[in-house]
């Protein structure tokens, strides 16, 4: 990767590495190190191991301070909505992280540059690299600027089913129900379609790679719809 | 809890709190706050949430530096052998942490002061409290002094089955086998007894609250026995 490209990425993330090798390593997917017959130890997996723990701590500390009235169980649930593949891959997409990854040819051809797991792992590797290069404070800054933004929306999205039920309960004891109405695509790449209904009226529809994700999206769309009609 | 007792505990852990309330909170089990009708937020569960993440990061960073040739998968396995209830409760016992806990009467009577989960959670709470009071460096010192000691032995204990198989493989392709030979006690408090055998010869016996723990202990005893006979 050219120096210009690394410079551009550093500008984007607002952090300049002392040790550029760490940045390059964080952007090196295992498919690339395999293809180039590099040592396994030079791809981004070890940095991901470390970065995952840095992200866990910075997120936990942030939530601990911000939500002083939440119990341990509520904090754990909230943290899980942030430190999860869908959120992290969305944050990676906001940073256009995919454009900077070093991938092997096979991974490239099969769409690795947009794969949630690849993007989410690489983001954790970047966090691990910043932590090693600049310490906890710098890693914390990065996490706050690019992951812990817009928490209320993230919370809403990943916990939409709970939020929807709370809205409905204000006026009724009847629970909403989720119905699987369609499954598309081949087995390894299925899309589920779910409707959420209240007293047989459809409140929202959602699609996702699992029933659970489709239900969350259906609930999220229902909340948006209910709010528009208020 | 008297000040003398808190002083004594601080001496033991080698850290003096600026904010003594944090220490007291870390030692307050939920059964005590329930009994005294204190707020849930004043027992040690929120500190445990934070301390768990501090422990995860300090352990990950320590292993990352110490084992520069291990892959992410190997590091993850090793970390799991340290950040786990059996190891943490053993560390708590070494610190006699149980003596300093504030417990409710029911928990006290049912043996909570020696319960692995209570001790392990309280140790994480102490780590969270030190982190809030003194920062990451102080928390790291505590973790190194009281948890990350004698790693090789801990590794051996929690991965004894693998180690035993490796020893046997030096001279044979036949795997060792584990046999459940007894189960004692009532359903909610069972003790399993397992033998590990090689070509029908008993190499070691182990006991534990799960088959897995009993197998690990059997393997551990077999390794000790084999080393004694060398």
UniProtKB/TrEMBL annotation, chains A, B:
Pfam families from the xrefs? dsrm, Ribonucleas_3_3
Q: Which family does it belong to?
A: Belongs to the ribonuclease III family.
Q: What are the protein's UniProt keywords?
A: Cytoplasm, Endonuclease, Hydrolase, Magnesium, Metal-binding, mRNA processing, Nuclease, RNA-binding, rRNA processing, rRNA-binding, tRNA processing
**Catalysis: reaction(s):** Endonucleolytic cleavage to 5'-phosphomonoester
User: Active site annotated at which positions?
Assistant: 52, 124
Q: Which PANTHER family match?
A: RIBONUCLEASE 3, RIBONUCLEASE III
Q: What does this protein do?
A: Digests double-stranded RNA. Involved in the processing of primary rRNA transcript to yield the immediate precursors to the large and small rRNAs (23S and 16S). Processes some mRNAs, and tRNAs when they are encoded in the rRNA operon. Processes pre-crRNA and tracrRNA of type II CRISPR loci if present in the organism.
Q: Which cofactor does it need?
A: Mg(2+)
Decide whether keyword Cytoplasm is in the record. Answer: yes
SUPFAM superfamilies in alphabetical order:
dsRNA-binding domain-like, RNase III domain-like
Per UniProt, residues of the RNase III domain are 6-135
Please state the Enzyme Commission number of this protein: 3.1.26.3
Task: Please give the name of this protein.
Answer: Ribonuclease 3
Which HAMAP family has this protein been placed in? RNase_III
Q: Where in the cell is it found?
A: Cytoplasm
Please list the GO biological process terms of this entry: mRNA processing; regulation of gene expression; rRNA processing; tRNA processing
Which residue ranges does the record assign to the DRBM domain?
159-228
The source's superkingdom equals Bacteria
Quaternary data = Homodimer.
Which GO terms fall under molecular function for this chain's record?
Answer: double-stranded RNA binding; identical protein binding; metal ion binding; ribonuclease III activity; rRNA binding
Pull one GO CC term from this UniProt entry: cytoplasm
Give me the residues that bind Mg(2+), please. 48, 121, 124
Which InterPro entries does the UniProt record give?
A: dsRBD_dom, RNase_III, RNase_III_dom, RNase_III_sf
